[in-house]
Amino acid sequence: MNRARKFDAPRIEKGELRLITTPDSFSNSPRENSAWKTEVILAGNWRGATCALLSKGRHHILVDTGMPHEAHRLMEALRERDLHPSDIRMIINTHFHVDHVLNNCLFPESEIYASQQSHDWCCAAYTDLLDEHNWEKLALKYYPEAGDSERTRERMGWLRRFALRWWDVKRLGDPSRFRWMETHPLPEDLELVLTSGHVPGHASVIIHDGNLPTIIAGDAVLTRAHDENILTMIPHNREQFQRDRERILSLPGRILPGHDEEFSNTDIL
Ligand SMILES: [Zn+2]
């Protein structure tokens, strides 16, 4: 089969990549013919996560929202597009690591789509990382492979310092705004795939906007070249992470990694 001629949704394979939702549901909005337009409005790099704006007519969605010190850049990017925070009616969080979610609170009128699994896992992990005396032992609950090497243990220390510096559950947005992906479908032409190697419940977003899709990988693909210097990159499950990454990179289209510039993955055609 020549899978690259035309984009097909990833096949469902047990324990790997799994479709969660696909159907249409922008509540009572008229069907619009235009395709989703995807813009990177905060470019991902080793210090910060990619934040993308999806637009279709009057509908605007943010995928991930960055960290508090990036709030002014985020707002500026919206202003440049004549958008007000109240124009953002939906946020999609790929997962709840601090570099992806801490400006959710700036969009109080937005519904927040994310997986409950990722939310619960990350909230519990950050809470335990803040435990002054037992954090190293507790961290193994979330990162069972962390005891494997000195380097990984060092990274756990970084993760704890990140938690101490930034974790603030209030910045995730009002809990009443959460719409769990497990039960709430996304608008038409947006598709979620579970890429759980990074954290359980991590989701990548596929936007069907033309012949080839746009793929917001989140941290399933940290960088194009698999740079290992991303501070928050410790995978929950290394093998699964590698499978998720390879699977996303096998898709033809425009790929937005979590911590790198976008690139076109058409060379596999
Ligand atoms: Zn992450």
H/E series: EEEEHEHEHHHEEEEHEE
Radius of gyration: 18 Å
CATH class: Alpha Beta
**Residue ranges: pLDDT <50 for 5 or more in a row?**
1-32
- Helix fraction bin: 10-25%
Number of helices: 6
* Beta content: 15-25%
The strand order across the widest sheet is 1-8-9-10-11-12
Write down how many β-strands occur, each being a DSSP E stretch of 2 or more residues.
12
Each distinct ligand: zinc ion
Terminal Cα separation, in Å? 13 Å
Q: Can you name the CATH architecture?
A: 4-Layer Sandwich
- Total count of domains: 1
Structural class, by secondary structure, is: alpha/beta
The named CATH superfamily: Ribonuclease Z/Hydroxyacylglutathione hydrolase-like
Q: What name does CATH use for the topology?
A: Metallo-beta-lactamase, Chain A
Overall geometry comes to globular
Largest sheet: 6 strands, mixed
Mean pLDDT score:
86
Mind sketching the topology for me?
Blueprint lengths: L17 E2 L17 E6 L8 E6 L2 E5 L7 H10 L7 E5 L5 H4 L9 E4 L1 H14 L5 H8 L7 H17 L11 E3 L9 E5 L8 E5 L6 E5 L19 H12 L4 E4 L5 E2 L5
Zinc ion binds next to loops.
Could you please describe the fold and organization of this structure?
The chain has one domain (18-268): Metallo-beta-lactamase, Chain A, CATH 3.60.15. α3 (116-129) runs antiparallel to α4. Mean pLDDT is 86; it is low at 1-32. The longest helix is centred in the middle third of the chain and has 17 residues, at 150-166. The radius of gyration is 18 Å and the shape is globular. α1 (71-80) links the parallel β4 (59-63) and β5. The chain has helices at residues 71-80, 98-101, 116-129, 135-142, 150-166, 238-249; strands at 18-19, 37-42, 51-56, 59-63, 88-92, 111-114, 178-180, 190-194, 203-207, 214-218, 254-257, 263-264. It has 269 residues and is of the alpha/beta class. The protein has a six-stranded mixed beta sheet with strand order 1-8-9-10-11-12, with no helix packed on it. It has a six-stranded mixed beta sheet with strand order 2-3-4-5-6-7. It has six helices and twelve strands. Residues 95, 97, 198, 219, 232 line the site of zinc ion (ZN).
